[in-house]
Design goal:
With 94 residues, the protein is an alpha+beta fold. It has two helices and two strands. Helix content is 19%, strand content 6%.
Amino acid sequence: MQAYKLNATIDESGHLIIDEPLNIAPGKVEVIILQPVPSLESSTETSTESQPEKPKRKSKVKAFEGLFENAPPTPPNFDPDQARWEALKEKHNL
């Protein structure tokens, strides 16, 4: 499979108009359409005010930077040592 990036528009009737010629073999193709996301500046302020601000969770590992943002918060009675022990018991069939 080969990928091509090109600019195209959709007219009022919903037809896709490709602005540049493609030099590819005839046959079926898969089309993935990406639309630009409106910037935060143009969004309404009420939507950001209604959501409570979540504290950012830091990570020392760069690959995990955005992973914890959507994770549910840990319960106040969470014991990490107990969770480790439960995981070890399950792993080693203790």
